[in-house]
Amino acid sequence: MRKIAIYGKGGIGKSTTTSNLSAALARKGYKVMQIGCDPKADSTKNLMEGKRIPTVLEQIKEKGDDLKLSDIVFEGYGGVLCVESGGPTPGVGCAGRGIISAFEKLEELKAFEVYQPDIVIYDVLGDVVCGGFAMPIRGGYAKDVYVVSSGEMMSLYAACNISAAIRNFGKRGYAQLRGLILNAKNIENEVDIVNEALKEIDTTLLHYIPRSSEIQEAENQGGTVFEYLTDSKMQAVYSELAEKILAQD
Predict the structure, then answer these.
(1) Does residue 127 have an active-site annotation?
(2) Is there a catalytic annotation at residue 45?
(3) Pick the catalytic residue: 42, 71, 118, 127?
(4) How far apart are CA 36 and CA 99, in angstroms?
């Protein structure tokens, strides 16, 4: 089982990238599980026809000891297994702690043993790398980490922080940073800016995703470019990303 974590600053297009990657992998015949690790719980909506699924924390609160895997794992586009960890009420409690509780419940219910996915992808908010948000890389859940960034300063700053956290945990034999995915925003000299920043981030550019209205067009219909667009050029872009990640196994 391949275990991957995808980090990135909020609003950078990380969940869009992740859901299209999951769809691309599913189209190649892989059984994929995508786990959203953001209190907004919107990671998997593009795989669930634009619909929000119940989160692990919500279901724990509602069902307690009667909770079953079918209450928290939902099948989306291409058979992708969708999970959202969820978070506390805004302003109350710790979102990171919510992720930890969700992971513990998935382990308790033996989710990986039951569903036996080929690839598990954790979609993790990267504005802060502490507490539960660091669980995928410090808890042995993910072995390979990818960062989604644009050429914007704050996005690259977040990528640097994520890289530093991975290096610290990497010394203990945990996850490793395998590359940066550039989700372009069409800012001036964007590729040059990112290539310069890669020296400080200490990684390489894995893949370039051009800015495209097709992505927004598909999202407006509630899904990925694979599900709602028949001749989208972006399908090839995400398929190539999937191939590059598979080649690193």
Answers:
(1) yes
(2) no
(3) 127
(4) 9
